Amino acid sequence: MLQLRFTCLLCFAVFAAFLATSAVHAHHGWAWASDEEFEITGVIQSVRLGNPHGRVTITVDGEEWVVEVGQPWRNDRVGLTKEMLSPGREITVHGHRAAEEDMRKVKAERVVIDGKDYNLYPGRDS
């Protein structure tokens, strides 16, 4: 009986540690971004979709910006495809820019292409 209690307690401790670690890792994706809403419009130069997040490079007033879009499953869920993110297309990004002012990077919450919204984080206001 004592062995069973010990095993249950050990399993619970491992599970609790896993949950705590998962929460920390889930939060890392926004740690570098400011809390303020941000919007930018530019022309797509290149795209790399994949894990952990897709990256779209856009040109705005002669400067390159990196836009972090969602994970593959998140992009798929809203219908955002590589074809839509093709070079030469205009894109408007709503989200949060990097907290470091000299870093030209944006975490996208929502993007607009050809007048259509793709809300990557529907639970957030953007």
From TrEMBL:
Organism per entry: Marinobacter daqiaonensis
Signal peptide positions (record): 1-26
Protein name per its UniProtKB record: DUF5666 domain-containing protein
Keywords, in A-Z order: Signal
InterPro entries assigned to the protein according to its UniProt record, in alphabetical order: DUF6152 (IPR046150)
A Pfam family assignment: DUF6152
